[in-house]
Write a structure and sequence with these properties.
Low-confidence stretches: 1-21
Oligomer: single chain
Radius of gyration: 20 Å
Helix content: over 70%
Number of strands: 0
Number of helices: 15
Structural class: mainly alpha
Mean pLDDT: 80
Shape: globular
Strand content: under 5%
Length: 429
């Protein structure tokens, strides 16, 4: 897995925040700011991969080489955040900036996504697009990784299902917003890439204005950050922290299944359902809207119910199964209406999974005093999955004779395995 935990020691004792058991309940301003910021992160993070990149690649290389080129861009593009985010998370746990531990990284991410979004929109060739997307992914994760750490920093255990449910709620809203923006400005490539990160930047500024950051005293003795310690960031001993390892693996598998859908949805519509290129942005928006409606219905509800019952595993397992079955149904349909039905079912599972899985991993963190590092490690599972999905997809397509139906069926099976992976977890019911 990733990241060896560090004992709290004098660093943890100097934090100017309560211990985990003493976190006061979060209020409406926190909930609004967190939800808005995470929605902005999702819009910036997902919109290029959902629609914009596929259309840009198609315009640059043509339909024959589009799938393989997109796989290379997405696969290579996630390697930088995969390597950098745990280190950034660990650095944020040690940051003594006056503005706080997380805010400097949030601001850097906001500036980065706007600048690099413009570069992607103007990219004249595939190498420039690939390099810009790789750096853009880093910038987007500079927003997402600190936000995940804020859950452990500020949210008491009995509210984590609720706040994690907000993540599940904001994602479909972000997908709707992002795809709506893209289909509304589909004739202007620059705006397709620039408007989503601009929204993310605004959401970050609102979050910084409304939410007090965790701070580390400058006088606290801090061990020197050595190369050995940085290397240890990428490893968690499964024997010492098996629950964290199993949840990490479950998220990895589930996101691989989700990555097949989001990355290749445009090609599924074009090649399997026979949609025209002009129809695809509108169809993806409609499908995203349908999926999002059912995701919203189950995200916050699932999170709050898991808080009330004190159970996480059953929700994660059931939601992964529902989502996986929905993708298998999608692989069998022959028309767009049938595809919409499958997306509606997928949203039921997807919303509940997002709501509870994040609460589950927050409950089993190896070291809450180093939440930034550990949540960055957990986020590596999603980043790695986003690299593995496009790397595996061409082989699945080859074995399936170029069938995107086969690819979607494989996505469903992998998502179901993601749910089964959390069965060995013992610290949380």
């Amino acid at each position: 897995m990733t990241a060896s935990p560090i004992s709290p020691g004098p660093v943890a004792e100097s934090l100017i925040t309560p211990s985990d058991d003493e976190h006061p309940p979060v209020g409406k301003s926190f909930i609004f700011a967190f939800a808005f910021a995470y929605a902005g992160f999702w819009i910036a993070c997902l919109t290029p991969g959902t629609v914009s990149l596929a259309l840009k690649v198609q315009a640059l290389v043509g339909s024959k080489d589009a799938a393989s080129t997109l796989s290379a861009i997405v696969g290579v593009g996630v390697l930088l955040p995969l390597l950098l985010m745990p280190v950034v998370g660990r650095l944020s746990d040690r940051t003594t900036a006056r503005m706080g531990m997380r805010r400097p990284y949030l601001l850097a991410g906001a500036v980065g996504v706007v600048a690099l979004g413009a570069v992607m929109g103007l990219a004249p060739n595939v190498p420039v697009l690939l390099a810009a997307f790789a750096l853009y992914s880093v910038a987007a994760n500079l927003i997402g990784t600190p936000l995940l750490a804020v859950i452990a920093d500020r949210v008491p255990v009995h509210q984590r299902g609720l706040v994690s449910g907000l993540v599940g709620l904001t994602l479909p809203l972000a997908v709707i917003g992002g795809t709506f923006i893209v289909q509304a400005v589909a004739t202007d490539t620059l705006l397709m890439f620039l408007l989503p990160p601009l929204i993310a930047a605004v959401s970050v500024l609102v979050f910084i204005a409304l939410v007090k950051d965790r701070r580390l005293s400058k006088d606290a003795p801090r061990p020197k950050l050595s190369m050995r310690e940085i290397a240890g960031t990428f490893w968690v001993n499964p024997a010492r922290h098996p629950d964290f390892a199993w949840v990490w693996l479950g998220r990895l598998l589930f996101v691989i299944g989700y990555g097949f859908l989001t990355t290749y949805q445009a090609f599924f519509l074009l090649n399997h359902l026979g949609s025209s290129q002009n129809e695809v942005p509108r169809q993806i928006f409609i499908a995203s809207l349908v999926l999002s409606i059912t995701t919203i219905l189950t995200s916050v509800t699932g999170g709050k119910l898991s808080d009330r019952l004190g159970r996480r595993k059953a929700f994660v397992l059931a939601s992964a199964a529902i989502y996986g079955i929905a993708l298998i149904i999608a692989s069998l349909v022959t028309g767009f209406n049938g595809y919409l039905v499958a997306m509606a079912v997928a949203g039921i599972g997807y919303g509940a999974f997002l709501a509870v899985d994040l609460a589950l991993v927050t409950d089993v963190l190896p070291d809450p005093a180093n939440a930034g590092k550990d949540m960055a490690v957990f986020n590596m599972s999603s980043t790695l999955a986003n690299a593995l999905a496009p790397a595996a997809a061409p082989f699945i397509l080859l074995l399936g004779g170029g069938s995107y139906s086969t690819l979607f069926a494989a996505a469903g099976a992998v998502a179901i395995l993601g749910g089964l992976a959390i069965l060995p977890v013992r610290r949380v019911r």
